[in-house]
Amino acid sequence: MISKGLYGLVLGVLLFAPALATAQEPSESTFPAVEQQRLLKARVLEASPSTKKVVEGTSITTNSQTLTIEVLEGEDEGRTVTFENDFTQLEKGDVFYVRHIVGGFHLETWAVSDPYRLDILLWIGLAFLLLVFLFGGLQGIRGVASLAGSLVLIFYLLLPSIHNGISPILVSLGVASLIILVGSYITHGFNRTTTAAMLGMIATIVITGIATYLAIDLAQLSGFTSDENVYLNFNTEGRIDMVGLLFGGIMIGLLGVLYDSAIGQAVAVEELYRAGANYTRKQVYLRGLRIGHEHIGALVNTLAIAYVGASLPLLLLLKQSTASPLYLLNSEIFATEIIRILMSSIGIILAVPVTTLIATYMLKGARASGLHSHAK
Length: 376
Known about the structure:
The chain is of the alpha+beta class. The chain is elongated and about 80 Å long.
């Protein structure tokens, strides 16, 4: 599977990588023997009109223009460079990141890497926070704090641990449990309802984790389904278990919708006890499941459509294939996405009976005034 990924990577670079133009300065003797690459912020001083050009060796046409740029940072700050650009077309005044490669076979090359997007990302982020505060109130603020805590655990615990060679399976299960623990109490407060939902989520993660591990093993998935996996494998000299990484991605991806399902069921059980103090645990459990049935249908559909939306380029590529539909379904790249969707959906479904069962036992007989703090 690795060799197939490498062939695809090489072909993609040959067909679609931006054309690199050699700058006229400085002299050849100043370049290092080993190729070095830098990504620098730059501004377009002049941009010629775009013209159509055929990518060499293919029948694909692309837009091309001549750019004159000024480097805005690094040791080349203030330097002016002119080169051909057949990647993202830019206009005069645009700020972007330029890829500067010096040394090696190409001597010196410049190419557009990415437009500068941080400003628009900042404004969208501020709009998101404003809407959360306006319409979510205190609960919205708690939700943002929970999100921040989850990201801290992912970037400062999950990723470094996997990068250092610790089993992605063990790390992802542990971090997923921590995210559930921290996120639940930050967002919904310290109370029985939150604890019931938290225990339901952890139990669901463990059960789904076992099922996912077996599914990946039985389907003989290697984890090499993209160029990113191939790059990562070479950059870490094979230190990271790609199968475990696939498992971890499924577990972490499950958490978002799992929260909604488990918290909803715990609150439903709480409200049933409030409405009928004489209800037995069995009656509350069955009524809670009835509420959960509607929840399951909506969440499974939402999850599946979200995955399909993210995989549209892959689906279009497969649609053009001349292979049989059964072969395509059997291929690893397609089978991986199917297992990802199905195992996440199984987790959502299991969360309803598991969380409802835990909540019916934990919340029975609790004082109505002390059950939860969600509405505060």
